[in-house]
User: Fold this.
Amino acid sequence: MVVTRSRRGYSPFACTGDVCAGLGAADLTDWNGRRISPRLHPTHRRELMMRYLRTLTLTTLGLAGCVVSADDPPTAQLSSNAIVPGSTTRALTLRASVGGQFVTAENGGGGDINVNRATAQGWETFTLYDQNGGTLQNGDLINLGTFDGTHFWCAENGGGGAVNATRTDPQDWETFRVVKIGGTGTAINDGDQIALQTKVLGVFVSAVNGGGAGVTGSATTASTWETFVVGGGSGPVGGANPFGPNVVIFDPTIPQATIQSQINTIFNAERNNQFGPRRDAILFRPGTYNVDIPVGFFTEVRGLGAMPDDVNITNQVHSDPILANNNATQNFWRGVENF
Ligand SMILES: [Ca+2]
Assistant:
């Protein structure tokens, strides 16, 4: 539950809904239990937006709920960096080079990491946080989030033993360096082979026996068991991002065609969804985007910059009439802001 005090002195209101599912859908009540419609009350709407962005920021920084890894001895971790601001994200799958099996976080996170899946689905899809932003390059420091949106890969004690997915706060044990194995150039793209080196001790993650078992983080050199094939696409993270599958976050490094495709997919789902349950949020990190954004029902489009000028949409954003004869009197439940 999130409780926030209005800047104008209104009573705080409590949200029992999922803010990530879209502002238009939030189940908001005031202290008297009355439902608040943010669309009809400008002050509440603004407050909801501020709270939403605050929650988003805190969650992005890994600070929501003041989450701390209780099982990490505080003296052993060198720092608490949470998700490094400016990190870019991408979906990632990893396949052992030797046996060709995919790496999975059992149950989508919170436990073991194994290398024993023939195909990649949700549990085998990770969110790669590229700490220095931009594209993924040889030598970049990364965090690897699991499908449940809660946990991160962790090399216990910074390396030398188990690697699991039991931590919720990405600190140094949860930070790895990507080392490109072979190939030309420094950029890492789908199909390239990489090794993962722990940040603290500089040892490498191994697929034990080349696959069919778990992973460890104790190899001093990157050889066959330490080599993984990158996959999963370089586009924005959908189902694997911390906010769930109905929140997409774009940044300027993502190809415009990829962004446009995802926007179109969302619009096609929301175009006539006046009475349906689906909710979507489309979020843009600061930058310029030459995309066309039709806004359907229950869709919120937001810039994530400190100021509206930080996000520029150079094509168009529009909400066309959904009824015949250019009748837009039922174009409800949608919003755009901060770009
Ligand atoms: Ca990078």
